[in-house]
Fold each of these.
Amino acid sequence: MRKAMAEAEVGDDVYREDPTINRLEDRAAAIFGKEAALFVPTGTMGNTIAVKIHTNHGEEVICDSRSHLLDWELSMAAWFSGCLLRTIDTSDGILNWDLIKRKLRPNGPHCAPTTLVEIENTHNMAGGTVYPQAVIDDVCDQAHAAGLKVHMDGARIFNAIAASGTPAALMTGKVDSVNFCLSKGLGAPVGSILVGTRDAIACGRMYRKRLGGGMRQAGILAAAGLFALEEMPKRLSEDHANAQYLARELAGLNGIAIDPSKVATNIVIFDIAGTGISAPDFSVRLKERGVLMNGIGGSLVRAVTHYDADRRACEQAIATIREVVT
């Protein structure tokens, strides 16, 4: 990846003259079966642009109550797009149409109309859960029939693809836009991609500039992204196997509660209430011993497996957690 970055051919991307970025965008669009793609510095910027493309000020967006769009993006849907996020509680992060239709707001003298549905695949705070394909397709069909757009926050969509075996173009064939991350499990140092229709991405390019994301000779970053896109999805099953190992080992430790059968991809969320240690203190004790995990509210702790955390690192993590809890 670093060799590709060092040898990257570059140009000025604001003028669409960076050949490496152009190749990355074309390849991403082809993989997802969409007309066009846009390289952005971060997933937050990609989601922000997507909401802006599909909505007008004063409208509503439906999302899960633990979605990244709501909790971790500094209220950009409100700040930049002028939209209200109307949330739905789920047990597993999966929205279906029966849940969504109850929250739809009609256009009228009292209600801000619903214009966009956002789904997250895999769902981060639900523990890396994967949307069933039938649910994605049904949400899209019903939303489109109601005149709504559907955006997928697919920051870790290649984990969903690896877990389900469903090709990207089939998984996202009916959604209007997808934002996915080139870092996370794919290992690039920076960058995300937004894919959609040609007109939507042309509009998104203007919003990217307004958000400060117009880059110049950024082909050195796109070169890493191209390598990540072509090579790194092949090894995501290793991360999933390591996450299963973590979950099984954690389930055997006193004071820790987790159901390994619910670990679907590379995110492991477990409850440490029984240890009598607070989540912030737990994280501090682990960090002092060289293991990085964060609390995510209450007594829950989240661990994520990835390219830099191999089986040996997972074994070290379990040994360290065992030491801390005993």
Note: The CA atoms of residues 8 and 54 lie 34 Å apart.
Amino acid sequence: MPNYTTANWVKSQLALNGAMAKQDTRFRSPEIWKLFLKNTEQFFPNHKELKGRDDKVLEANFFTRTSRGLGTGRSHNHAGSKGDSGVLQPTWVTRNDKFATSIKQADTSVFSFQQELDNELLNVVANFMEGMDSVASTYLVNNRTGVNLASVEGTFNATNDVYEINEASKGVYATQIAKTVMNINKYQNVRLTFVCDPIAFHRFEREAAQGAQNATNYSFQFLGVDFVLDISLTSKAASILPAYATKGFFEVIPQNTIGALTWIPKQNRNGYEDTEGMYSTILNPFDGQQYAVHSYSERFDGTATNGFTQDVKTEVEISLDVALEKAPLSVATETPIYAFALV
């Protein structure tokens, strides 16, 4: 039942404490979302100050590659061409979650008003963490590269934009092959993150544990690699090609090539309150981000929501503007996000 009515003092009751009381509000750690947050300020310094309002457009400039074949000899009248630059315009989406409270909702409850408010906030955190992880996961799949220069011990499927490795003959070396593929695509001497479906994650974790003392040593291929489990990647892989979901699917992202811009309005950052509502912030301890809080109160009949006839309702919205971005490249279909499948 909503509105905490099951906790009303209509019979002898008690409240669960400690870990026993927290199991229904558990949520998965947002590891994919955290991947994007790692490099935000490094990529886009001062973006929170420069973006003055929700609808203000920001642009980030970068140098593009000018590739030329080498000539021969020298001349007195040589003439060259100039390089160029490009512009990245972040795409912002405002994500939000809402809840309501009333001042009389806890009058007959085993829970205090503060406990019920804390529970509302915990659910907001859980909803944001699972929601943003889902958004981040979908972004990676939808922005996988359509350009791959490699053809080593596998084949790039240009229709599905997935590098396919034969599981039966090459599966135990999939990590090594993927690292070589990234090397051929000019991602050398950089740490790589493998975002894996459960099948690939189990396989790589098991093979990484096969050290020098084992009969077969696969551990050599796991230097410079981090593994992250994405449980939603199975269904996403199947949507590309059903066979991709059966033997292992993973994405490889070079360090410092994806980022997330987060922003909230200055009224929330500075704090503002009048008769129409209040603007403030709340720190999310799980991702370290400041979220915008907007609230307003109004009189209402709360009998339908565990309050009382003469009651005051407060509506609360928590929000965050987010722009997920990848390092821009000159070729329209090329990105730093590489998808692999064992087939």
Note: The chain has a mean pLDDT of 87.
Amino acid sequence: MTLPGDSAEWRRKWFRLSLSLLAAAGLLYLLLRGVDWSTAWQRLPPSPWTWLLALGIHASIYVLRTLRFAALIPDRRVPFGHLWSIQSANQMASLLLPMRTGEITYPIYLRNAGVPLEVGVAGLVVSRSLDLLAVLTITVFSAIFLGSPIDSMPLGSGIPVILMIAVAAAGLIAVATGGAPFIRAIAAILARFGAGLRILGRVEQVARGFETVGRYRAVAEAFTLTLFIWVGVDLFYWVLMRGMGFDQMGPVDIAFGASAAILTNLLPINTFAGIGTQEWGWTWGFEHLGIGRSEAAASALAVHAAQLINVGILGLIAQSQLSAKPRKEQTRVLAKLARSRALLLETVARVPPAAAELRPAPERWSVAEIVDHLAAAEESIALQTAHRPREAGRCAARGGASGSRSRPRCFGCDS
């Protein structure tokens, strides 16, 4: 049965998704309506060998992302393979769903693996802060290496931009390393405004989560891995661009040209699967480097398509692993129960009927009564699981194998 609140939530989700798809379609139309497709098609698509090499780089980036998440939860022992599946599934959800709503899957998956929710949330916030910091660092250094293309922006000077980047970087470092005091300061403000103990307790949980992931050594290790991650992303883009014939562009050119597209994907402003927003950022960045609009837009489409295919492949592999883990555990438990049941039946079958009906003491059950009670409890639990809410310790009473004799009370149930 669907509850009214559930249907309202589904309507809101479909509305957001529809709005995101319309926005993506509108952005693509505005971007591509002036493209010279006779020229652009020469850049589409990259060769299969180029794509396979890019897929290998993409898979390596996922390994680095997994190592970073492991660094941010040092007190929690999640197997590397399981953590890889979690981050891969999270990458697919966060890329495909609009407005970065898929990000919430990371702490949820981690909670299912035994990591407290507040630790997962804090790890996600810190990792995304480090992502932004690394992208800003690479963008600034690539701009300086190329002769400061920022200076040719409409602002007339790159100084205001660099100052804003410096302020943003300082804020991101503060979030990554000092999240707990910041959260507790918020709690103090909430307490002055009369916030309840439940709310304050939740805020304190989040603060403790930041203390777990915000240790300086862990953050330093995570930031080093983050730099390697984004160097890998730029290498991924460079391989694809060379495969499409942009041999004149080096890795530094690609790093700067792709930075706008990367930022629009990192910030919570993107549409469904980043379609439209990434293409606009990519086209702007490469037009700024002297690439024609048609070629820049065509390369944006090709690169984004390869990226989505890779994320889909790796994400589906991760989802199959995450789904297989509960199934394997269920199969193991059912097999163990089946072995125990077979052993019980085999043991009881060897007991003579007279001995099975014999009570060892007036207040003790016979073998037949114990087996009868086990069968009744099994049937009752199966019925409750299938049709009724769980009730605390009730077993259906059935007539015992010992006839009309009263049976001792079963501790923990009513039969």
Note: The radius of gyration is 30 Å.
Amino acid sequence: MNIYDLHKKINIVLDEEVRSYAANGRIRGGLGSMNVTLQSVPNNGWTNEGQIPQLLFDRSDPTVISSPNATTLIKFYSSLDPDDKSNFRIYLIAHLRKDSPYASVGYLIFFVLYRIGETVDAIQQARRALLGDTVHGYSNVLGVFSMIISREYLEIDSKTYEDIKLVLQGDSEYKFWLEQKINLALLKHLERDLNDVNPEVNTDRDKVIELWGKKFSNIEVPQLIKEIEDDFRDGDFSDTKFAACIGRIRVLLVEISKRIALSIAQSRSDTSVTENSDDHHFFQYLKDKRVINDHEWNILRSMYGLASDQGSHSSVSNREYARLIKNITYEMVLLFLSRHGI
């Protein structure tokens, strides 16, 4: 698509937003086609004496804030090839300036840029080129960002928050409780990460790695455990990451069962189990050789099934489901490794 046509299509949407914003100008804090107003921002007003302001909503939810005009622009962006996407971003960012005909709808431009992953650049440009405007463009950008944090605080990663803090440092219009909200959002990230921390399980995880190093030269198990832990530390737990994490847990169960079974077989010159045996044959071998009893064998098979069936987690979140299987798996493999004669 040539640049002229790209800009023309973007302008169609922005022109409609300008009309919508003007029509809503009678409403205090109205933001055009957006389904929120500046009055929706938590604690934009006064707080009663002795009360602690509630700056964030109880649940981080990326589906609440919307705008039909923003949706149109985001859909248009998704239809473009890489070069046109780059030109799209450049054009929107360029209009976050005081002399732009779209300065008054900078809030919508910022919201779209946030949705397509350009939050830091958008804030940086708005502060540099929109600050001090006469149409409340910059203030509205900060107001929308404040609402985004209140509603979607866990959808923004910690590094982005830290980068935004640097951009806004010393800002004379640093309002809408942004500084406090960013700090509280970072606290929510920390609390969520610590929800995955169980000191007892972590101690057993470390024991697994220690015992494995003493008994086996295979490095795949420690590497799998590292990758699983990295998945949890990264914060975001999308469906893709969930599938990858659960897959690693299943591989961990199989790899440990396989190495223990092969070690026993080698010590007894037993050829009934080999590198090419299927997963369940290793489990059965451990049961037959009394490494695990009937109840433990049933648990092992059940855990393998849970880690193989991603559809069975529908009643809980991906992160909770993965954490449950991870923790039980560590306990199980420690039990296997601690058995005498292995």
Note: The chain has two domains: 3-193, 197-338.
